[in-house]
Amino acid sequence: MADSLPRINFGFDDLHDRMARFTEKFDSFIAKGRKQVLAERNHFRVNVAELQEEQRVKQKNIELLAHKSSDHARSIEKEAVETAEMHAAIASITQQRDTCAQHRDRVRTEIAAVRKQIAQRLAAQQQHAKTFDIQARFNNPELDFWQSYLAMRIDGMGVDRLKFVFTHVDEKNWGKEAWFELDMEKRDYRVVCVKPKLEPDQIKACLQRLNETWNIGVFLKDMRGLFTAALK
Asked: Which residue, 46, 78, 80, 216, has most beta carbons within 10 Å?
């Protein structure tokens, strides 16, 4: 009877085959997905490792740059200190130079002053010698003659000056004195003081003859004549 029933084909074989192919594809998909995930994970780990290495290198570079920056800052600070010390040394040397220049100028001034004093003393000694020479001219018998003849005396007024005092020049008063001072500091003698007052041109004429001839006797006689004329 069973053989008489119609046979029904449910397609189990085809379904089984299809299920098998599906399972194969699914397993392949899963394997590929797992492989891809593994590959991506490995790639991610590699990237992370590379990033970590890059970060380590950058951190090392940062530390190196920080060290260099610190060294540079210390170098700048050291240079600033050296520059300040150099400026201070330059200022000190400049001050020493200025002090030496001032000392040199002061020494030059002192040397010039000493030379001037020496020259003045030498000139004074020469003038003193000349004065002694002039006085020596009077220290002879001729002086006694002129003093008696002209009623005159000579007073010393210093190294370079003599005072000649005359009496008997005023007919009304023989004791009245007339005098003048002769300055012998320079080569040409000068009359610096005179009493009573005489005409400057007359004195100048007498001095001119004296400085030209060096005849002191004639000069004294001329001056006495001027005083006598002035007191008439």
From this structure: 216
Where would I find the beta strands (DSSP E) of the chain? 152-156, 161-166, 178-183, 190-195
CB atoms within 10 A of CB 101: 10
- Say how far apart CA 197 and CA 219 lie, in whole Å: 17
Look up residue 48 and give its two tokens. 């992370």
Residue 201 confidence (pLDDT)? 93
Q: Percentage of the chain surpassing pLDDT 90?
A: 8
**75 exposed, middle or buried (CB, 10 Å; 0-12, 13-18, 19+)?**
exposed
- Cα–Cα distance, 133 to 214 (Å, whole number): 12
Give the burial class of 124: count Cβ atoms within 10 A of its Cβ; 0-12 exposed, 13-18 middle, 19 or more buried: middle
Distance CA 223, CA 232 (A): 15
To the question of pTM greater than 0.90 for the whole model, the response is no
